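Quick start: read one record
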Amino acid sequence: MRLIRRNEQPHLSARAVPREMYFFYEKNTGVAHFHVEASPEGQFPVDQAAGLLAMHCMVRGQSPNDYIVMVQAENDFLDGLKEKADKLLQAGRSAGSSVKLTRREDEVLGGIMRSLANKEIAADLNLSERTVKFHVSSLLAKFRVRGRLELVREASRHSNPPGPVAARETREDYGSSSNGFSSKSNILPLVKRCMA
């Protein structure tokens, strides 16, 4: 078992500092199983933690070495974290797509993003199935992927964050967006959105 601890600040009195929480995570999975709170004097509750750790190890067939203990960070350490992360996320989203698509490729990609088969895309766009296969091959090459699932992942990374989930039967044209994809390409079936 390893303890990851924040920096101590001895200049603060025990009453001014909130009681520390010790979280026990499984090393292999990163899953938090339980936590204990320090005593009012700021001491680690060894007996309570040992009992809980032994119980969890017994139930799961593990040893104490399979766990890591983390202490909650103080607010001083987290100042500005959310704001900086939001700015970086916004900058990343505004970078736009480096993959340029033709109008037909964009329409075919919209069908793929809606989990339509080539035959359904062909009927929807009034194309032959062979033409749709050609465009799918072109999309796979442009996004440098080998399959449709990878294509969905890469296309959603290159586009703006997905909007609301559309039903599979939705066939209306949503128009084009400024990044080269139609907003159809931003709509993912629920199953695909969880995997992306």
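The chain has two domains: 2-74, 103-195.
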